[in-house]
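Notes continue from the previous slide.

Worked example: a multi-chain complex. Inputs as given:
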Amino acid sequence: MPANRRPILRQIPCLAMLFCISPMLAAFGQQQPLQTLLVGIDHRDAVSLDGDWHYLVDQFPFRALYTDSGAINDRGYGRNTHPNIASGAHNDEYDFATAPTLKVPGDWNTQVPQLFNYEGVVFYEKDFDAQPKPGARTFLHIGAANYRSHVWVNQKRVCDHEGGFTPFDCEVTGVLHAGSNYVVVGVDATRLVDGIPSTRYDWFNYGGLTRDVSLVTLPAAFIDDYDVHLTHGATWQPGNTELSGYVHVLDAPAGTAVTLSIPEAGVHASLKTDADGNAAFAVKASKLALWSPESPRLYKVSMASGADKLTDEIGFRDIRVEGTRILLNGKAVFLKGANVHAEAPIRGGRANNDQDVAVIFGALKELNANFVRMAHYPHDERMTRAADRNGVMVWSEIPNWQQIAFDRPEVYVKDVAMLKETIRRDRNKASVILWSVSNETPNNSTRTAFLTNLANEARRLDPTRPITSAFDTEHIKDGVGTLDDPFTNALDVIGINEYLGWYTGAPEAADSVRWILPRKPLIMSEFGSEAKAGNHGPATQRWTEEQQASVYKHQFAMLSKISELRGMTPWVLFDFRSTTRNIPVLQDGYNRKGLLSEDGKKKQSFFLLQQAYKDNAVGKPE
Ligand code: GCB
């Protein structure tokens, strides 16, 4: 059985005493329904529902979406009725048929000026044709909807989902009919204290159906999930070409035949499902070129079972930690990267199309980067696909950002669901080398117990990748930097965020800082300072490109002396929108720590980092 299908209670080892004795335990047994079903959706024959959707704004108190008791209102806009204006009788006072439209995928903020700062409920509606086939099953796939969403098809609520950055699928088989059908999605972007992220964060809360929406029709039993990777094991040697994993066929009886073939690697395997529909395998590839940044080789991997078949493109590589080294295919690597938010450069708004991804990867390649931290949440699947193709290694993160309600059991349940959705979508991407479970969380026992359990859960779901997290609990005093945080014990790779030269001290203070760190690989996961592109002056003048460049130079001097340093991702590739950045003229609603402005102007720091990466001037693989 794939690990992520087991009930959550059995998945959580009682590692942290706090959780073993806590009344929270009951809630840790609750299972959040797994909404993400279809792995490799972009390699399926799907009918796109992208394009124009009618929308109606449901202003606070969100009466159309919630009843007075807070339940989901199934007698509201989801019914998609039309007012009988001619008869004059009083009935529902909304009408999608004559409502304006929004483009999907797309946030509402950048499409409708009046909705720019709106963080509430918007209903979307679209009509579509269907011709259901007997015996076939149809799923509505939503790439992401921020933050909570509730979906009705032909007046029946088909699913609810929480989490703004992971995909989900709603089965609509029983509710479709031949001819015209409709779908209504109520999306609520309200910030929640028990949300992930919670109410405070330093990026823009783009609401809506922010990623692709499609309909996928499949046979009664179909391949919903698979994992094809280079066998990890305790030791791996170059030359070991065994591939292992599973192909899962949903609703298949035990003994159902499955084939797996990777012709170019000489793999042709005939498998059988077990009682859970799972066909596990371990097969030797007769020839295999491994994936690496220098040679990002992807193989066509075909899977078939009964009437279902699917071909994905997958790369194979080994990633592991040994002492303070990170080994890719047995060879020590240094991760030359940058942080990236999922914001579209140039056009603005949530990044969600090929063009956005091409601009972001164009900048990373030009920077000579081999690594990217996709901050602070899972990005569009196009991003990890592009990373696979471009040979850029990825730090993937779930949005546990700073102040999460770690004391609330229901938050843990949501977190596990989000982690599962993230890992399930991207576990077949060779580029993804690290799962990060959090960013800058406070050092206290409740958080440490919570995140330790979550890190262990990530490792259980995917034992082939190291687990990491970014810290800001370090102390720099009298020229000595230390990180004494018990949560580091649960991790394979440590990330540190520090802003010497911006939030604390002068840039040159970095030169003499010596770090005393856990003996694990370190990634300096954030550093930097703000500069408005085109703003020039002396290096001592804040907000200038020169000051930002000076921060980078002094950071390089410090980083070069950290013996555990195995990677760096300065904050951040492009300037990005943030509601908390309100210095007129200098910020105007943007966090200006970009190496490039939001419209693509390169700052001095970009060229400095580009050269440093080209010359391998900062940091060593071992
Ligand atoms: C951080 C956060 C990041 C912020 C950044 C900043 O430490 O991790 O999300 O945007 O600092 O600019 O303050």
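Summary box: Residues 336 and 616 are 9 Å apart (CA to CA). Residues 202, 376, 439-440, 472, 497, 526, 571, 591, 593 surround GCB (CB under 6 Å).
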